[in-house]
């Protein structure tokens, strides 16, 4: 399979727009969305959802606090989906390639942020010199640089994609291929594990065990396990709300008794 010109254009434009959207809603850069859109453009929506959804699990426990750079799973999802479709080797292959791509793009993310810091200092200088007309142009330049930080690498990989992917897949050792597949299968578990560390897991271990039992031993589909989880959450919420209402009622009664006692004492 070969990339069509319109596919290259659409994916490049999508990557440019999406990375700028990360400063507004951070929706288009989610790996699941990136995989879905890339899969739709490539004509294999299911494969795109599989690659993007798996990378989304890896991203759950990672956040860029304080402007720190993290693996760029957005670019990994886009290129992983494209290469998975081109090679015809399935989602595991795409996920395995997406991981090193995400780590590589982390370095380019640092360069893009550094470039914008340079422009930010130019904005500060324009403010000090009262040259306010230059500020919108500098801000727009920062947005353009930020968009190109993803659009250019993705465009270059897409232009070289056919030859590169074919060469890599034909000459890739079987052991390395198996390693990429194994990494693609393990990484989602690592992402979930990191996420569980931030959640009050110890408090709800029984529900975690119930979900594991349903999925592993009874072979209940994920939708069924999710429904059981929603029902459990609703029951816990109702119980906590009932306790809160009872506590508020007891507090009101206590305050009323204290108030009446104070009046009687004054009399």
UniProtKB/TrEMBL annotation:
Keywords: Cell membrane, Membrane, Phosphotransferase system, Sugar transport, Transmembrane, Transmembrane helix, Transport. It is found in: Cell membrane. It is a multi-pass membrane protein. One of its GO terms (cellular component) is plasma membrane. One of its GO terms (biological process) is phosphoenolpyruvate-dependent sugar phosphotransferase system. The chain crosses the membrane at residues 32-55, 62-87, 93-114, 135-160, 180-200, 207-238. It comes from the Bacteria. PROSITE patterns: PTS_EIIC_TYPE_4. This is PTS system IIC component. It comes from Enterococcus asini ATCC 700915.
